[in-house]
Each structure stands twice: as C-alpha cells, then as structure tokens.
Design brief:
Strand order of the largest sheet: 1-2-4-5-6-7-8-9
Largest sheet: 8 strands, parallel, barrel
Pfam family, one: Dus
GO molecular function: flavin adenine dinucleotide binding; tRNA dihydrouridine synthase activity
Number of domains: 2
Order of helices and strands: HEHEEHHEHEHHEHEHEHEHHHHHHHH
Enzyme class: oxidoreductase
Radius of gyration: 21 Å
Family: Belongs to the Dus family. Dus1 subfamily.
CATH superfamily of the largest domain: Aldolase class I
Strand content: 5-15%
EC number: 1.3.1.88
Bound molecules: flavin mononucleotide
Number of helices: 18
CATH architecture of the largest domain: Alpha-Beta Barrel
Length: about 350
C-alpha cells in the first residue's frame, strides 16, 4: 500500500471510521442542523458549500456562512471554485476549524456552469487533478472530493482512479449524473458506486437514494462502501441515522433550540421547518401560510408550538418520513394500519372544511 493510501485510512480511522454522514447542503447543513443530526446518529457532517472566491474577498461572508464550535466534529468544510490558488487561500482560512477540505465536484446548477465549479468542473479532468494536487501540497488537512457520475461509465471509473492518484483522501460518489436534476432526479445508481468502491483503495462514501434506515443498511450491504451520506431524507427526518422513529414535531422543537443556541439564519430556519413539519402542514394549511410569512424567530417557533398542540389528537403518523407515507396512502384500504386510516380521515375532513369555507 503506498503512503497516500495508508495515510487516507489512518485519517479515516482517526475520525472514528464514521459511517453515517450529513451531506453538504447550502442553507441547510448549517451548524444548528449539524448538531441536531449528530445527536441522532450522524457521525460526520459537512458544511454547506462555501464559495472560495467570495470567502477570500469578504470577511462577512466567511463569518456568516462558516460557523462551527468545538463539539461540531468531525467536520469537513466544502469549497467550490476552479482556481487552485483561490481554493488554497480559502482553505487556509478555515483549515484549523475542520478535519478536511472537500471539493464540490457535483453541483449541477446553472450558477455552477457560469462559475465553472461543481459538476461542470468535473468535466475538466486536468484542472480537477491540479486542484487536488495543489491543495494537498499546500494545506495541512486532507483533501476529499464529492462527485457525480458521468453518463459514460468508464469515464467515471477512470476519473475516480485519477482523483485518488492526485491525492484525494476520501471520495464521495453521488450516483446520479448532472442531468439528473430538478424534475429529472430519478433513480440513483448504486452499482457504479459499488464498482468504484471495488477499484479504489481510499475510503469511499455513497450518496443518493437513501430514504429510510433500511435503505441505509441496504446501501452499505450492496455497495460495500465505508459510509453512507444522506441529504434530503435527513432534512425530513434528522433522526434518520438513529434507526429509530422519532416524533417530527419534537425534532422541530429541538431544532429550534439548536437554532437559537447557534444563531441559525431565518432563511435556514424556515426551510428546515417546511421539511420537518411537512405532513402536519398538509393537514393544517393555515399554519403552512403562517410559516410562509413568519419573519422572526419567535413567529417561526409559534408555528411549531401551535402545530404540536393541534396535532395532539392526531396519531403518530411520523413512521418513515413523508415519502413512505405517501406510498402508504396509495395502498388498498385493507392494508392501511389504523393510525394511517385515522390520519387520512382527518385530511378528508379538512378538505371538506376547506370546500365549505371556499365553495370555489
Ligand atoms: C437543499 C440542498 C442543498 C444542497 N447543497 C449542496 C452543497 O452545498 N454541496 C453539495 O455537494 N451538494 C449539495 N446538495 C446535494 C446533496 O449533498 C446530495 O448530493 C443530493 O441531495 C443527493 O443526496 P440525497 O439523495 O440523499 O438527497 C444539496 C442538496 C439539497 C437538497
């Protein structure tokens, strides 16, 4: 085993060989949310993507978007950008407060095309490899990468080998192409992740297609990766990695405490509450509007408390996050369990009430 591979494993083990990872998420994997998911089984978390150029130009950007605390470890800070010198400068600003610097090679948005980063940079093989090499030589924490796959399987496999060779210590693979975005998200390909895990020697994390705890177990088993990273399912259920079913309203209340303690931004709070309270807000649509127009921390908290009180009579419907519940609703009548049946009755009553008040 060459030195780099050995160091990569030493590094991964020094973090406690984390298996359950909170993904980097702009406006959503902020300190407060990371601390909540860590409480419920996340063993490594990523910051939201930080723009390397803006970070080096604006102290207020860094102070607003990169916040952490001693308990927020292990932590990988994710950067985007295409200029190795700028990426190095940004990495040097935060390397003392994180365990690794991750390069975003997966963002599929139009803004990433304009700025030449994320999945668009991934197409520039030489530039990617230069960035990994230069960063590795110039900073004192390991460099990791998060990629999407190409449509061309061989091209993906070849590039991952090159990235490893260039000095990447951990590779996260999102098993979708950059075209699988927005309305075209579709299936995540775990077979390519399994293949990458087989051919690489550094630790590999799988990302994509995780909705439930059984998906987590299945993904580990089918791909043999070292860890599983989740994004959207964790947003809906921050306790996903505990493997237990928790009350989403209680989790929302707990999130609000963390949000206060760690000064979450209102945009982050609002976006979290819409996902956390998804089912309740489908039933109590007045609260959905109230959440939409909430302007202060207290107004957001009020919605969480009001919803909790209104839901007191509703059975525990937070079985598996909204995605699975939606599937349950589609099951034939006699397959539904009693609590789902009761919940559906409540929704129907609400619909009738809405129709009565709004005859249109
Ligand atoms: C709200 C949101 C913000 C995201 N921001 C980032 C980001 O900053 N960096 C990144 O690499 N991926 C980002 N992603 C992509 C996720 O990290 C992840 O790759 C993708 O959602 C697939 O994982 P999932 O199937 O578990 O959701 C974001 C996704 C969401 C939903």
């Amino acid at each position: 085993m060459d030195d780099h591979i050995q160091q990569a494993w030493q590094f991964y083990k020094s973090l406690g060989s984390p298996k359950f990872i909170c993904a980097p998420m702009v406006d959503q994997s902020e300190l407060a949310f990371r601390m909540l998911t860590r409480k419920y089984g996340t063993t490594l978390a990523y910051t939201p993507m930080l723009h390397s150029r803006i970070m080096t130009e604006s102290k207020s950007y860094k102070d607003e978007f990169f916040t952490t605390c001693p308990e927020d470890r292990p932590l990988f800070a994710q950067l985007c950008g295409h200029d190795p010198q700028v990426l190095i400068k940004a990495a040097l600003m935060i390397q003392d407060q994180c365990d690794a610097i991750d390069i975003n090679l997966g963002c599929p948005q139009g803004i990433a095309r304009k700025g030449l980063y994320g999945a668009y940079l991934l197409e520039k093989r030489e530039q990617v490899l230069t960035i990994v090499k230069e960063l590795k030589q110039n900073i004192n924490v390991p460099v990791t990468c998060k990629i999407r796959m190409f449509k061309d399987r061989k091209r993906t496999l070849d590039l991952t080998k090159d990235i490893q060779e260039a000095g990447c210590s951990i590779l996260t693979v999102h098993g979708r192409t950059k075209e699988q975005n927005k309305d075209f998200v579709g299936q995540c390909d775990w077979t390519i992740i399994a293949e990458i895990k087989q051919i690489l020697q550094i630790p590999v994390f799988a990302n994509g297609g995780i909705y439930t705890w059984s998906d987590v177990e299945r993904c580990l088993q089918e791909t043999k990766v070292d860890a599983v990273m989740s994004s959207e399912a964790l947003l809906e259920n921050p306790a996903l990695f505990s493997g237990e079913i928790k009350d989403l309203n209680d989790l929302a209340l707990e999130y609000m405490q963390f949000a206060k303690q760690y000064n979450a931004r209102l945009a982050e709070i609002k976006a979290h509450l819409f996902k956390l309270l998804y089912t309740g807000l489908q039933i109590f649509t007045d609260l959905r509007s109230k959440l939409g127009s909430a302007k202060t921390y207290e107004e957001h908290l009020e919605v969480v408390i009001e919803l909790k009180n209104k839901r007191a009579d509703v059975p525990k419907e937070d079985k598996l996050g909204w995605y699975k519940r939606y599937q349950n609703f589609k099951q034939p009548q006699n397959n539904k369990d009693k609590s789902l049946q009761k919940l559906e009755n409540i929704i129907q009553q609400q619909d009738l009430l809405i129709q009565k008040n709004d005859p249109q």
